[in-house]
Amino acid sequence: MYASREDIGYDFGEDSKVGSKPTKPNPNIDGGWAWMIVLSSFLVHILIMGSQMALGILNMEWLDEFNQSRGLTAWVSSLSMGITLIVGPFIGLFISMCGCRMTAIIGGVLNALGWILSAYASNVHYLFLTFGVTAGIGSGMVYLPAVVMVGQYFQKRRALAQGLSTTGTGFGTFLMTALLKYLCTEFGWRNAMFIQGAISLNLCVCGALMRPLTPKDLREKDVVRSDSEENRTKALSHSTETIKSNGVLGEEPEKKEEAANEEVLGSVQHIEIGGKSGSGRNMYGLRLFKTVSQLTVTVRKGFALWYSSYFGAASLFTNRVFVAFIIWALFAYSSFVIPFIHLPEIVKQYNLSRQDNVFPLTSIIAIVHIFGKVILGVISDLPCISTWNVFLMANFTLVTCILTLPLMQTYVGLAVVCALIGFSSGYFSLMPVVTEDLVGTKHLANAYGIIICANGISALFGPPFAGWIYDITQKYDFSFYIAGLLYMVGIIFLLIQPCIQKKQPREKSTGEAQV
Questions:
Q1: Where is the sequence biased in composition, kind Basic and acidic residues (predicted)?
Q2: Domains along the chain with CATH numbers
Q3: Per-residue three-class SS string for 209-256
């Protein structure tokens, strides 16, 4: 059944401006430099998400090297994946103050440092700090800007652009699995991590490509979006409360904040003009004072936007569908991560190593994942198709595969299920699109930071939980069953909340009629 964005309570915040005059869009929106942003994001996904999905190779090396339990060893991979996503809300603060470009460059250096320091690990706990925390924070500082920048540069082809950029995860998983296998065989796992650290420095180049849009460009994009959504916004007139929670209520405090900032800069300029007749030392002091004042204003403005998104009157948490989206994210991601971490061990248990060496199951997931993201992105961009419905159908397919995987004990059966997992998990490319539809472009960085933070918590506890269940039962079956059931709970929340959101305005209008 087709459900429009209005039916599930989507709101468009400040984008909902009916009757605005058409404005000539910036050529870099949906074209021009926007495709360089897609390339940058694509390479980020290869180097970060692709490497993390190939950690099953290193996990086996760490098991042999340190002789620790599977549950404890799995924490290394989980910390790296989890922290990459958990730090999302705090990276949103960095983006608000420093911009995507500077945040990504600093993150690239941290990520490379984490890989290189991990090459000298003497125990698993050392890896917790170097690889899990250091490399994880660095990855998060690059990953969120890569997603946000694509959302800023695209309007009409958002799903396709996000799909193309996030296919880097699939390509990266395939390439990094082969690369880490080769490096570990030829040079050992320590030298492999050192080399991977050097390769990760290319993340700084990706960050340098993230040229920021001017505020004028962003406003033009909002006008184009509001023009294309004009019919939809008329249908949203009954949902005033939801729209207010999306940032409209926060406009007045923001105006006051901007006025205060302008007053500070104005006073600095007045002092500077008055001191031009002074000595060179005084002028140097004034320039330094002006620089510090401008930096202070930037930090205050960024922190105000970040704070209002989480705790202010326009808090994102007042949007009930968005809250349901967070609950779904808490359960969903572990169901995708667990197979990548533990599939090599499952293959070994079923004596399928010979077939898996010819064509690894994780590579099957990765390759089909590429096509899944692009195809689902193209389908979602069709005018007659609801992105929300595509997103839900892909989730249902994935949870079915997770529950079915333990029943497959042949290579062909596992390969078929892995292919379906790879295709259906292509919905990851739709997550930024769904998030932007829920909260608007202005709050995308902070909102998506919350979503990937929830995903990070899921990734953090999922693989160690699966390893812990195996240590008790000597089977991975129950790990997949429990993860699948929790995933289903998250999907049910996504189904229930939009129905409640849609029903409440009708009940309210009925009550008013009775009065």
A1: 221-233
A2: 27-211 (1.20.1250.20), 314-495 (1.20.1250.20)
A3: CCCCCCHHHHHHHHHHHHHHCHHHHHHCCCCHHHHHCCCHHHHHHHHH
